[in-house]
Amino acid sequence: MKKFKLKSGDLVKVIAGTNKGSEGKIVKILVKKDKAIVEGINMVSKHVKPNAQNPQGGISKFEAPIHISNLMLLEKGNVTRVGFRKDGDKKVRFSKKSNEVI
After folding, report:
1. Is residue 53 part of a domain?
2. pLDDT tens for residues 27-81?
3. Is there a domain that residue 29 lies in?
4. Helices (H) and strands (E) in the chain, counts
C-alpha cells in the first residue's frame, strides 16, 4: 500500500506543469496512478454524445488528475514540505517550515 503525505481536503499549490502557481483543494487521491484531482485545476473539455440524461450533448468540462509530485501543501499561504513524527502514541503530520502539526 502506497502512502502519500497529502490527503483529501488539503489545500495545495501546483509547482510544475501548465497550471503552475494555481491553488486548490484536493477532492480525491488516485493511489494506483499516484495522482490527485484538485478542485478547479487542470480543467479539460470532453465532447459528450447526446444520450438519455443529456439529450442536448455538447462539451463538458471537468478536472483531470495531476501527478502528486507536482503538488505541494499550502500552509498560511506558503508552500511547505510535510514530515511525520510521533506525538505521544499518535503518528502526526507536521510542516517542515513552521514545525507545527497539521
Report:
1. yes
2. 999 999 999 999 999 999 999 999 998 899 999 999 999 999 999 999 998 999 9
3. yes
4. 0, 10
